[in-house]
Amino acid sequence: MEETPPQAAQASPPFPAVFTPPRALSSASARGSPTIPSPSGPAQFSTPPGPPVFSSPLRPAAVPFRTTPVSPQPVPFAPRTASSSSSVSLPTSSAPHFLNGAATPHRHLPFAAPSLEDSSVDSPYVLFSARKVLKQKKLLNAPSLGFGALVSPGREVLPGPETLERDPRRCLSCGAYVNLYCDVLIGSGQWQCVICKKMNNSEGEFVVSSKHDLLQWPELASSTVDYVHSGNRRPGFVPMSDSRVSGPIFILIDECLDEVHLQHLQGSLHAFLDSLPPTARIGIISYGKTVSVYDFSEGSAVAGDVLPGNKSPTNDSLKALIYGTGVYLSPVHASLPVAHTIFSSLRPYQLSAAEVSRDRCLGAAVEVAIGILQGPSVELSRGIIKRSGGNCRILVCAGGPNTFGPGSVPHSVQHPNYAYLEKTAMKWMESLGHEAQRHSTIVDILCAGTCPVRVPILQPLAKCSGGVLLLHDDFGEAFGVNLQRASTRAAGSHGLFEIRCSDGMLVSQVIGPGEEASPDSHETFKNDTSFCIQMHSVEETQSFSVSMETQSDINNNFVYFQFAVRYSNMYQSEITRVITSRLQTVDGLSAYLSSMQEDVASVIIGKRTVLRARTTSDSVDMRLTIDERVKDIALKFGTQVPKSKLYRFPKELSSLPECLFHLRRGPLLGSIIGHEDERSVIRSLFLNASFDLSLRMLAPRCIMHREGGTFEELPAYDLAMQSSYAVVLDHGTDIFIWLGAELATQEGQSAAALAACRTLAEELSELRFPAPRILSFREGSSQARYFVSRLIPAHKDPTYEQESRFPQLRTLTPELRARLKSSFIHFDDPSFCEWMRSLKLVPPEPS
Ligand SMILES: [Zn+2]
């Protein structure tokens, strides 16, 4: 069609002819301003340009996107009946963990008599596997159960912690921070460190007449405080709760897509663009055999500069771009029409090469993007990284592997030298990721389609920069939602996470988005025993799983834990968040067990296990270690059944084995996922995920749609597959909607049920990153196997056992029960009860 703009690569003169000699430029925003068409005022923002031109009709990929927070009709949850509530063994929500927020200083009075039920245990940032610590070393350290915490230092909660505009006061001996549990001598102002017990001077600051007066210092009154480092606060500082100022976003687009994929991607990109705030700055690059950088200065025309893809960009070529007349990063309000036109102008792959064999210079394209994002500042201040305001993002939309130029691998894995070249490529990508991270740039790689993208090569780039790699079936809905969520998630950079514990507690393992920091990367103190982690990025959707052990039996009544994270937030302020927790110690095993938080313990165990499941054969081994673990927990913490060889699992941990049984069968360790690449992506997400997402990925949540549009939560057993109902199964990265065959025949009812389930699925995952794939299908369809394989097969269990674990069954008529029974195809997978008995254990009573 005539209005279709020409393809960028053809429209612009080849590199480097386009460049004009460098000349002085003031700033990126000044460069952007000429592109604002003078006559069009703000009205332009609300009326985007005419619809993009597509060569064939678009699939409605953009339909589910929302540019504003949704407020759909609430789908009421049915208040559970007495019978069904007793059957639910899975947690319905994590909310109870967060009810006692940290922002209730008066509950944490340090001088009140130590309460036995210490409410400060509950923090939005830290979840312990138990609220009490067992004094006996042998049992506390028992590796089958273990003790630990999940820490989300970057989590944002409202109201947030108190903000202090000064440097924190630290123990001169060990580096711990002053906190609400410190004993202060009000006459001299000296304070005692809770970690090393040394006395510290406050230079008279804490000299007051009564202990109560100490509460004027927020760090002596609440368990979490944020210190904003003075001196580098930017003039435009806005409190966290206000709108976020985000750094520039570079969108990198694969030029080698076939028509259908490209159409989906275009739909997603257009919707993404419309979702961005007008002040967001964007840049667009496409890559194939060359790197095309689109220029927003031309107004309505699509133009760009082309750089070679077979090598890294030279300093001269980057300089020419940065100091040239082109505008490569521009605020959305100034460039929305041209950005839409650029996306519409993308053309499908024209040559005849197969998908895997197409030349894609993904590595060079990321290098160019980093170079432009850095801007002139690198030149001006060598050694000191000057930030261009906010953390930058690169969003790569990839349909295939990096096969051309730096960091590439041969098209075929059959290449005689593939293994070596793969290793070299991984190394290169890892260092590119670190380079991005040094410049506060996060690289997210969003892949889609059926072409293998060679995950092992791309994963290090995403990981080391603090980003994620995601796989999608296509460039449609879930892909588009994830583009939006990737760009809006809050992230800090240059994070350093320190862990300190008192009384001989040691950190034995940390799993999460970072790596152990080298001692010279941070300030150390004479007797600093902290465990330090360099964080790749600081995000609210991530967490660290910290396993701890005691060196000897504990004598004191309390153990103290301090988690501190130092990072620059999205306003470029240096923040130090200090979270201090105190746990009571106990002698008795039952007091310890009843203080356990089963879900937290399950997630920590899950992460320790999945960490070791690098390959398919590893995951088979890990299934066996779960068996051993469950047996050992029963042996050490449970009881022997009289006159029998069977052991009874501790009743305080009754939901733990079922959770681990799900882990054993599910996508992380089981055989549900066919491709190892896909499993490795899910595994990496799980290891970094927040508590909520981790728990959901571990054990699915099963919710049945009932008459009248209500929902009932049920155990995730295959007995939920009742023909006259629809069922939603939330497994973290996937949400399935299963439509019973009988319901499917009733047109109006099934449509209403489907719509209600769909709304529920979107509500459940509204804040989740990555957004899950949401699939719906009918009973008996080929896709239904996705669903069945994630439920615990309980249909072979004896009736009394089914009824005790799945009481909803009792509400079915005999006829319906018979029909349900006959609907199952028998297979060899053991049920939960059978599995427990095979381990010589009595299945725990449902709690
Ligand atoms: Zn100390």
Please state the second-level CATH architecture of the largest domain: 3-Layer(aba) Sandwich
Q: Tell me the CATH superfamily of the largest domain.
A: von Willebrand factor, type A domain
Per DSSP, the total helix count is: 25
Compute the number of structural domains.
3
Small ligands present: zinc ion
From the N-terminal CA to the C-terminal CA, the straight-line distance is: 66 Å
Mean pLDDT: 83
SSE class: alpha+beta
| Overall body shape | globular
% residues in beta strands: 15-25%
Helix content: 25-40%
Entry keywords:
globular, alpha+beta, Immunoglobulin-like, 3 domains, binds zinc ion, 9-stranded mixed sheet, Rossmann fold, disordered N terminus, 8-stranded mixed sheet, Severin, 32 strands, 847 residues
How would you portray this structure in words?
By secondary structure, this protein is α+β, with helices and mostly antiparallel strands. It folds into 3 domains: 8-34 and 245-489, von Willebrand factor, type A domain (Rossmann fold), CATH 3.40.50.410; 125-232 and 492-587, beta-sandwich domain of Sec23/24 (Immunoglobulin-like, Sandwich); 603-842, 3-Layer(aba) Sandwich (Severin), CATH 3.40.20.10. The protein contains 25 helices and 32 strands. Strands 2, 4, 8, 17, 19, 20, 21, 23 and 24 form a 9-stranded mixed sheet that branches. Strands 9, 10, 11, 12, 13, 14, 15 and 16 form an 8-stranded mixed sheet that branches. A 5-stranded mixed sheet has the order 28-27-29-30-31. Helix 6 (259-275) runs parallel beside helix 13 (477-488) and helix 11 runs parallel beside helix 12 (455-465). The longest helix is centred in the last third of the chain and has 22 residues, at 616-637. Bound molecules: zinc ion (ZN). Zinc ion binds next to loops. Zinc ion binds at residues 171, 173-174, 176, 193, 195-196, 198.
